[in-house]
Amino acid sequence: DNLLKMLDEVKNKKQELEGLIANIQDLKEEYCRKKETISTANKANGERLKRLQTSADTYRDHLELEIRKIHGDKLQFIFTGIDPKKPERPYMFSLRLNEARDYEVSDCSPPLECLAEFQEKVRKTNNFSAFLANVRKAFIATVHN
Amino acid sequence: DLQQQERKVDEDTTVTIPSAVYVAQLYRCI
Amino acid sequence: RQSWRRASVKEINRRMSLAPFHPGITELSRSISLKLAESKRLGALLLSSFQFSVEKLEPFLKNTKEFSLECFREKASSLSEELKRFTDRLESDGTLQKCFVEDSEEKTSEFSLETSVAEVKEYMAKFSVERQTWDQLLQQYQKEIPPDEMPRGSSETKITEIKVDPATYLGSSQKEVLNTKPDYQEILRNQNQVFACMELVMDELQGSVKQLQAFMDESTQYLQKVSVQLKKRSMEQLDSSPARKLLKLH
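Structure tokens for the assembled complex are given below, as produced in the milestone run.
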């Protein structure tokens, strides 16, 4: 009886083994497929990011304006080309959404009195480019003053 | 390793790329 | 000076600016050494004429009342020292030299005036000969041209290919010029072939430039179409407020 039992067991084990091997095979195939998918996605993301970075760099150089995402869910806007004597000198301010989901400006350097007024205007009009153009003009005015 | 790569792709797809897209769009809008 | 003395003594051609010399003075100038420079001699002449006039004056004054000889002589010697200092100053600041330089300048200017008058006269004679020669040449042309071709009322004659033998314009001063110049008419005739080829080349060039222009216009239109499409496509995806979206992204 033992012998028969052991033979059965061996047969089961073999079937289990085959099952496992088939399983491993599936897993391996799935792994390769996933690897393939991920590396393709990675590659596509890399290229897309590269293109986006290139266009952002082009805008940054021509607008002499850098936009950075900084900790605390803030956007930092850094202007250059303001002071003709020191074009590389940075003029900046940060922007965040407050609890009421409105734009809120802060950390302006050098400080601008008219920033609060500009903040109100951009909340009303949502015209971001006008807002930034006014801020740049105000920074330039500080240089001339 | 594959999971790590998968996490990276997810992050790229959900955060990095949209963020870069919004920055480029913001520049475009400005 | 020699020339002044001659002129003033003979009372001819007198220099209006100077009174004639007193005959007694010529001895004075002789007594001044000729070795001195002209300006020094003039200064010495001024001094010695002052002393000469003092000597001439003294005997006249002797018989006047309250005349004191010592005081007169004292005054005369102090004046002559002052005159000496003055002439030295005139000598040192170049005033005396100017008298001579001016004169020489005047002399040269008079001289150059005469020479230039003579030159002008010579030129006038030359130009009138020249004018006669050109008039002859003009008449020659007018004779040669058949009357119907002669433009009415204009004195200029149309330049046509008329052979004028050199003898007619030999007299003008332009003969060297006219003889050295090549025969432009001939040169132009020889170049006709070249001009014809140039014309062909220019036509070819013009044609290809026109084609290039057309191609350029076409490609510009195409580029404009493509850029409109690109803009439309990029604007489609543009979000209404990307800043807000960006801020919401964690």
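Chain B is about 95% helix and 0% strand. Chain B has a mean pLDDT of 89. Further analysis is deferred to the final report.
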